[in-house]
Specification:
alpha+beta, 4 strands
Length: 180
């Protein structure tokens, strides 16, 4: 009798777990982004993190008078660096919402900027930024799941989502001459 109860309990827990996996993530389990033949999520190439980094890097160089024949900072290359540093947490979250593949964590912004020879200075106050001199990557949000990376002064981080815009992170970019 004890064996039957244990088997029934195991069967019940297995069924409930399987049901949760099918119902809670919606279509996430069946409708996720696929990796390309090189093992990268191409969807991440066009997400706000890699785009903001590329725009910010170009603006810092432009203000320093650096001119390139070919843009040295492609969103795809930046995205691949981000993905090379680890993407398991995003893959897990994408089971529940496939757009989670687009997440770029603040630590990834810092790490990739340093890999490209930039120094990141964290600021607490947006008002300290000077649009004539400074280039910053800013994380804003309006809802719990609505975050976006922007570039100051190209974008308008303070009012990106209108009056509901909240600024979470401000990363001032500076050239790190020793690494470049």
């Amino acid at each position: 009798m004890k064996k039957i109860n244990t088997l029934l309990r195991f069967y019940f827990v297995s069924c409930v777990t399987a049901l949760f996996c099918l119902i809670l993530p919606g279509c996430g389990v069946f409708n996720t982004y696929q990796k390309n033949s090189n093992g990268y999520y191409e969807r991440h190439y066009t997400c706000c993190g890699p785009e903001a980094l590329a725009k910010a890097f170009r603006l810092v160089d432009q203000r320093a008078g650096v001119i390139y024949k070919r843009a040295p900072y492609s969103e795809a290359e930046i995205s691949r660096r981000i993905q090379d540093n680890g993407i398991k947490s995003k893959e897990f979250l994408s089971l529940f919402n496939k757009e989670a593949i687009c997440i770029t964590w603040p630590s990834e912004i810092k790490e990739v900027a340093e890999q490209y020879g930039f120094e990141i200075i964290t600021l607490k106050e947006f008002e300290k930024l000077d649009p004539e001199k400074d280039v910053a990557i800013v994380l804003v949000h309006s809802k719990i799941d609505n975050y976006h990376w922007l570039v100051f002064p190209i974008d308008d981080p303070q009012y990106y989502y209108g009056m509901n815009t909240k600024i979470d992170k401000i990363y001032l970019l500076k050239k790190n001459e020793q690494k470049r």
